[in-house]
Amino acid sequence: MKDFMLIFIGEDYSELGLSPEGMQERMSNWWVWQSKMDKQGICKGGNALHPTGMRLSGSDKVATDMASAELKELVGGYYIVTAENMEGACKIAEDYPDYDIGGTCEVREVMVFDR
Amino acid sequence: MKIEGVVDHLFRHHQGKMISTLTRIYGLSNLGMIEDAIQDTFITAMIHWKNGIPENPEGWLTAASKNRAIDLLRKVKADDNRILKLDNGPSVISLNDMFLPDQIEDSQLRMIFTACHPKLNPKDQIAFALKTIAGFSEKEIGAALLLKYETVKKRLARARKTIQSQEIKFDIPDKKEIGRRIQEVHQVLYLIFNEGFQSTKKDQVVNKDLCGEAMRLCTLLLKKEHLRSGEGYALFGLFCFHAARLDAKVQGEMIIDLKNQDRSKWEKDLIAIGHNAMYQSTKYDVMSRYHIEAAIAAEHTNAKSFEETNWMNILEYHLMLHNSDPTNYSAMNISIVLIQLDRLDEAKIYLDIIDPDKLENRAYLYFGIKAEYHTKLKDLSNAILCYDLALKNVTNQSERNYIEEKRASIEKMK
User: Fold this and answer.
1) Where are the domains of chain A?
2) Contact assignment for A20 to B14 by CB distance below 8 Å
3) Of A63, B230, B301, B362, which residue is least crowded by CB atoms under 10 Å?
């Protein structure tokens, strides 16, 4: 078994103008996915990220406030899951619940270094 | 989707509770700011909850809203006397207490009376009530009332403007006024329920939500001793009898009429609650149209089959309604029952009173009834003529299907 990182990229929920009912539904989708993975024991952890932050870049280490920059490609969170191979990991990623609102899920194998 | 530990519609209902609570703190003039603030709390919740549901989700939301309220309190200029009083006044309820269940309910009742204020346009009342008390979004209100998003926005804006210009207070009316004002509230709840029950929308979920909200708000009134009344209980009874039939009314994309509904699908528990409410209503010395309408609905739920319906009782109730407030609709209802009873000459008298032009988008119902009348008289060509007129006037697809099916069955008999 290998570890894979699922990286969730999508627009900020606050920009979507969801109704309270709509938000609860979105949340429920995440919990359904989470509990499904819990049952299978394939999720090793993960976190949601605040939509605010700083981005440092360049040799001058210039820090940009991510909220002020117009960044559509914002990482909203990640999970680390175990799967047989890339195909299996992609299968898991199919359950990511935000595709319908323009979300993207990136599947990346975690590199293992030999000591 | 049902998630363990999280109540259905938690966010929606929480929104309703918090709008009312924060309005009590900041006043009706700050509604816009309040809605934004609650939206912020939900966004925070969504991020925090993704990894797991807190033990007490509702408590979590309430605490977050309270913190947000305190933030706002700091931000909003302290020149508002109301806020100052809340902050310092010894006799006034403290901010903390505002978030206790009893006070939240009190705030919600104030919002109900605000939304149902007689100075608001009746159309605006419903939209405003759904938004501020029930926590519907503009889009959801549009879907529920079959209105364009823009129309909903306009109505909400107009309601807010009226509240400002008429200086409507965020209060529960005093003893002198309460009797009259609560009638307005009942009327609005009745209309919200009917939007859900009479509607022919395919989306059963939306319909059920409307009926559910009307029932929930009605219970909120009945919980308070000084807001209880015979009308209120009768209205709730009426809701229960109708709501019990909601599931049996729709099958796929078809509306099933009373005659063909699977009566085993009617919810017996709701019918029992309805009867209990009616019993409570008899303890008051009033007889309202809700009593009579509930009695009619109860007759239907009591009948084991369509054929066993006690049409004589139902006729009597419809005549009572018609005599106290004669309308095209009350005449139409009487003619339907008379046709059932094969008293066709009398049915004709009532059918002749009705002016189909005044029924507007419901004119098709009138032609449908007339077609039944002609069918009973074995006057099949006139029956078909009436069905054609009905089809010309009907806009809803499932109603159209229903009429077309009826027309086809007459065509076969010819």
Assistant:
1) 2-109
2) yes
3) A63
Q: Write down the pTM of the prediction.
A: 0.83
User: Domain map of chain B by residue range?
Assistant: 1-99, 101-227, 229-309, 315-354, 359-414
Is A48 at the interface with chain B, CB within 8 A?
yes
Query: What is the per-residue burial (b if ≥16 Cβ within 10 Å, else e) of B125-162?
Result: bbbbbbbbbbbbbbebbbbbbebeeebbeebbebbbeb
Residue type, B166: Q
CB burial of B10-27 (b: ≥16 within 10 Å; e: otherwise) equals: bbbbbbbbbbbbbbbbbb
Spatial CA neighbour of B203 closest among B135, B124, B143 = B143
**What is the number of CB-based contacts under 8 A between chain A and chain B?**
65
pLDDT at A37: 93
> What is the average per-residue pLDDT within B303-323?
94
State whether residue B53 sits within 8 Å of chain A by CB. Answer: yes
Among the partner-chain residues A20, A47, A77, the one whose CB lies closest to the CB of B15 is A20
Q: Which residues pair with A57 in a beta bridge?
A: A62
| Contacts with A20 from chain B: Cβ below 8 Å | 11-12, 14-15, 42, 135, 137
What are the pLDDT digits (tens) for A1-41?
Answer: 999 999 999 867 777 778 898 888 888 888 889 889 999 99
CATH number of A2-109: 3.30.70.1060
